[in-house]
Amino acid sequence: MSKKPTAQPALHKVIMVGSGGVGKSALTLQFMYDEFVEDYEPTKADSYRKKILLDGEDVQIDILDTAGQEDYAAIRDNYFRSGEGFLCIFSITEDESFQATQEFREQILRVKNDENIPFLLVGNKSDLEDRRKVSFQEASERAKQWGVPYVETSAKTREHVDKVFYDLMREIRARKMEENKTNNGRGKDKSKKKKLKCTIL
Amino acid sequence: MDFDSPDVMKDFPGLYASELNKQCNNDSDYSDENEKAMKKDLIGKRKEKKDKDKGYAALEGESSADENFKSRSPSKTKKAKSFKFSTKTKEKRDKSREKEKDGDKKKDRDKKNDKKLDKEKGKNEKTKKLKQSLDETADIGDILPIFGASIEVAVERSRCHDGVDIPLPVRECIDYVETIGISFESVYKISGTKSKVLQIRKMYNQRGNINLSDYDTPTITSLLKTYLRDLPEPVFTNDLLIRFEEAGAILNLNTREKHLKILVDNLPPYNKLLLAWLITHLHNVSLNEKFNKMSKQNLSTALNHTFHCSSRLLHALLHHCPALFPNTRIERYVPPLESGAKLPEHPVEIDRELKKQESLLTQIHKEMNVCCISKQREELLWEVQRIITQLKRKLKSANKDKEVVEKVEVVEEKEEVKEESQEPSDTHQKKQNLSSVPECQCEDISPVDIEECDVNTESVLDNTLALLQLKNDGLHSLRDSLLKDIQEERNQILMLKSQLTPEMPPVMMIPNENLDEVMDLFLKENQILQIKKINLVRQIIEEQEMCIELKAQIISKS
Ligand SMILES: Nc1nc2c(ncn2[C@@H]2O[C@H](COP(=O)(O)OP(=O)(O)OP(=O)(O)O)[C@@H](O)[C@H]2O)c(=O)[nH]1
Ligand SMILES: [Mg+2]
């Protein structure tokens, strides 16, 4: 990554995690290409980059779509530490996938060692209301307990798809700004890549 | 064998830790020392076990050359160094690291180390702990060097991602000389700047981006020589070197060629391939003698030390090169595309590129499993993953457009043959194969029969075509099943390795002479069996090929 200031737009690295079949790839593809695929094809790992306008600022988003299937867990773990924000997805039609979010959360905290890592809890497949197994209430409570936002999405209808990605990027951006400030204040340590243009105080 | 696979690291954390400390002690020469000591310690294998009954019926007995080679073999002269940790050298190293990468990056790394503390609570506690301890003291160039590693390990660590299994630095040096240095006068004779050579070596070890065209020919040839000299054993292997020398000394050209050919074919696959490329390349160089003044003779005397052999042997290999390595073509290496490059459009090309990228991705993942990789490398991981995703999408949309009806038929046909040759070594199975032949026959041949009544010549052509097709299919499925076997055996090796480890340390600690003797005996016996096995396997394969041919003939005749 270039350390030179300006030139390149800020790059935010987002990682999709969650059990197999909850719709991580579906959400990613909907966000990237406005497409929805009915067939389920388990992912090993996929990565995408998109240029977007975030509150008037040109930024790039790198999305890493990981495997829910445990077979590929080892590969998944290698990516975690370079992720700057996480979308933790479950399907509202499957309680097991909701329970699994707990473990994903713990694993991420372990790797990042950071309670405030940008993170959203996402209940997907909201279009399948009639098959709902996880109540909004229940999920919100868990999110509250973790101190993260909870959003329900549908990769099929595109409901809240942009929202989860944009909200997460805002958190990442805010986080980076904060880090830059503490850097300037203390002059040392906590060095993270300075992707944002430093504003003159 | 791969002694450095993550599993081994996991199982011998102590061993590797001491290796690391040692590295700090002798900065300059870490790579080959490291590898060698590791090997010795791990198997307790003593190089003196140059055994006399190798099982080469074709060759005469031992010559007196034995002693010479013992002393020449690089691994012998090295003395064990004490495993003491020296803070001074560590500081030095840190400083030099700081110089290369800027300050920010180093802080990043330190920070990451902190995080690692928590990570190790995870499942693979052992590896994680190891990872962490490694992070503090060394970078990848120290832990997983390419120069000084055995050929197989070097290939694993530094692949050519197009499937040619020779170490990348060698390939790139050869490419360089073939394109830029081929008419350079006294190429391979004139040495390059030592500091530059060491610098490039370091960059390769650290998986940096290297552009060889920034350097001059002598530097590149010296680099290649350094690689060969750093090898823990000659490319001919310690075990076969003497046989090679004997064969190289045979006066009768035909006999010499025959014997060399047998020996070359008995080399481990990675050694054989590397030798094939090197000799073919040097042969090419000698063909340009007019410009570069390097005849076969000159090359042999310039390079025999590098190859750890006599110039006579080298000369013999160059002389017989076309016969020894008829299928070796020097192909210029095209590395995996970088992001921003235009991706291929044709499905076949997409597929080829995809394989390269996946090979690269696997390699990065492997590095990550062992130690902390650089920020650039991490960046590359995402990038490669992105290209793979793009290529897969392209391939998918390309495939959607294409008609697949034809393919399905072929696949079905292949499947049949595959099932038959599933267990090639099983004789019962073979009988079954033969008895099952008539079944396929009726389906495959009936259309030909009808045609036969109409046009005679055409049917003959069709027949040979069908025969070839059948043979081809048979060989394909044989290849598939062999590949499967290889994979299975690899898994088995891994499994056995992990089983083996808990018992190893006590064995090594007992200073029992008897045990050593027994060990030696077993090692020797093992080697003999190994060679017998290789020969048997070759026989089996040959018979299998015969079977396929016969089967195809039977089918097409009836
Ligand atoms: N109705 C509905 N179906 C969805 C939605 N999101 C995903 N699906 C379907 O759920 C299945 C699995 O979706 P994927 O996106 O492949 O699941 P994944 O999380 O990527 O699974 P892994 O790659 O194995 O981890 C597919 O058949 C999708 O069509 C949604 O919002 N609504
Ligand atoms: Mg997926």
From TrEMBL, chain A:
Signal peptide: none annotated. It is an enzyme of class 3 (hydrolase). Residues 189-201 have a biased composition (Basic residues). Pfam families: Ras. It is found in: Cell membrane. Keywords: Cell membrane, GTP-binding, Hydrolase, Lipoprotein, Membrane, Methylation, Nucleotide-binding, Prenylation. One of its GO terms (biological process) is signal transduction. SUPFAM superfamilies: P-loop containing nucleoside triphosphate hydrolases. Its EC number is 3.6.5.2. PANTHER family: RAS, DI-RAS, AND RHEB FAMILY MEMBERS OF SMALL GTPASE SUPERFAMILY. Belongs to the small GTPase superfamily. Ras family. This is small monomeric GTPase. It comes from Zophobas morio.
TrEMBL record, chain B:
Residues 149-355 form the Rho-GAP domain. One of its GO terms (molecular function) is small GTPase binding. GO terms for biological process: small GTPase-mediated signal transduction. InterPro entries: RALBP1, RalBP1-like_Ral-bd, Rho_GTPase_activation_prot, RhoGAP_dom. Residues 21-131, 411-436 are annotated as: Disordered. SUPFAM superfamilies: GTPase activation domain, GAP. Residues 33-55, 88-127, 411-429 have a biased composition (Basic and acidic residues). Residues 73-82 have a biased composition (Basic residues). Keywords: Coiled coil, GTPase activation. Residues 381-408 form a coiled coil. Pfam families: RhoGAP (PF00620), RLIP76_Ral-bd (PF20924). This is Rho-GAP domain-containing protein. It comes from Zophobas morio.
